[in-house]
Write a structure and sequence with these properties.
The complex is a heterodimer of chains A (175) and B (127). Chain A has helices at residues 3-29, 89-93, 143-146, 166-173; strands at 34-42, 45-50, 54-59, 73-79, 82-88, 105-111, 114-120, 122-130, 149-156, 159-164. Chain A has 175 residues and is of the alpha+beta class. Chain A has two domains: 1-30; 32-173, OB fold (Dihydrolipoamide Acetyltransferase, E2P), CATH 2.40.50. In chain A, the strands form two sheets. In chain A, strands 8-1-2-10-9 form a five-stranded mixed β-sheet. In chain A, strands 3-6-7-5-4 form a five-stranded mixed β-sheet. Chain A is globular. Chain A starts with a helix and ends with a helix. Chain B has one domain (4-124). Chain B is 9% helix and 46% strand. Chain B contains two helices and ten strands. The longest helix of chain B is centred in the last third of the chain and has 7 residues, at 95-101. Classes of the chains: A alpha+beta (175), B mainly beta (127). Chains A and B meet through strand 4, strand 5 and strand 7 of A and helix 2, strand 9 and strand 10 of B.
Chain lengths: 175, 127
């Protein structure tokens, strides 16, 4: 890599770190700031994405497997004539897979230029929460969950909800 | 550039595939190739199916020819009639999937009613 290229990627890393820190500070320190979250469940545990990164929530439709993709990508679906990928969150979070049901949903999420469906067992609610309700990631979470977590808290019916980062998930899936 | 491409559709292990018929010069029975020692490729040898073993229900061999080179590609459940489609209806793979299609025969998707058909480039499947 040229010096200019190396400098640019270093700058990008610094900018990303600054942005991440700003997001964390915003989520944890400003008591009157409200954020919208989409709460969903997987294997009797509760997770959420920030609503700002979610384009829509879709009912389950059959997925076309694309040979050669890793297990973390289930395949592709047709969303009104647009082809979208489907991420397998069970595999990413290393939690037990369950058969699809009438509660299975695709959360269509976007981070920067990447748009993809994420299959979840059930979407529970869309909530507006105070950002100071979201605390730092607890150390007792499984490592695979911590890797994609932004924070968490008792956000939904007294259940602990792990706030996941769409950006971290998509970055992991990009080779 | 032509605005249409004629595709041969087939299905292996429940996944729909299609390929341009231009390099396909014949479709023959697999039994007719029993004495042929080389130049035969089974589709699953070039495409990494997650489910194994790959089972063929009704295999047929396509003779693929380009210039002076040719080989036989064994596929499964081919439709009898190729179909001409407008190239504008061909879709790219989404970003997360596209990265894994590089270097494989898979190159795009065609939306056939409510089914997604994976397009393969037979010329990349030479033995």
């Amino acid at each position: 890599m040229s010096e200019i290229g190396a400098d640019q990627s270093k700058h990008q890393l610094i900018l990303d770190a600054v942005k991440d820190k700003a997001v964390k500070n915003q989520a944890q320190d400003s008591p009157d700031k409200k954020i919208e979250i989409v709460v969903f469940s997987m294997a009797h545990r509760y997770f959420a994405f920030k609503g700002s990164g979610i384009r829509e929530i879709l009912p389950y439709t059959p997925i076309t497997e694309v040979p050669g993709c890793p297990r973390t990508i289930r395949g592709i679906i047709n969303v009104r004539g647009i082809i979208e990928s489907v991420v397998d969150l069970h595999t990413l979070l290393e939690i037990e897979d369950t058969p699809t049901s009438n509660r299975t949903r695709f959360i269509l999420a976007q981070s920067e230029k990447i748009l993809s469906g994420i299959q979840v067992e059930s979407v529970e609610d869309v909530l507006s929460v105070e950002s100071n309700q979201i605390k730092a990631v607890i150390s007792t979470l499984p490592a695979a969950t911590q890797k994609y977590a932004l924070g968490g808290g008792e956000l939904y019916k007294d259940h602990y909800v792990v706030l996941l980062s769409v950006k971290k998930i998509f970055t992991e899936l990009l080779q | 550039m032509e605005n249409e491409v004629t595709l041969l559709f087939f299905n292996i292990m429940g996944i729909d595939f299609a390929m341009d018929v231009a390099p396909v010069t014949a479709m023959v029975s697999v039994e007719s190739l029993v004495n042929q020692k080389s130049g035969i490729v089974w589709f699953h040898e070039k495409i990494n199916f997650s489910q194994t073993p790959v089972v063929y229900d009704c295999p047929k061999a396509l003779r693929i020819t380009t210039g002076k080179k040719q080989f036989h590609l064994t596929i499964d459940n081919p439709r009898e009639m190729p179909v001409s489609i407008c190239i504008d209806t061909i879709k790219q793979f989404p970003v997360l999937v596209d990265q894994f299609s590089h270097g494989t025969p898979l190159w795009a998707v065609y939306l056939l009613k409510d089914r997604l058909v994976l397009l393969v480039d037979a010329l990349t499947m030479f033995p």
